[in-house]
Amino acid sequence: MGFFTRLEFHAPTCISALTVHCLKPLTGAEEIDILYSECEQGHWKVVHYTNTKAKFVLKSEIVARQLSISSPVALSIIDVQVEACSKQNATISR
Question: How much of the chain exceeds pLDDT 70, in percent?
Answer without folding.
Answer: 90
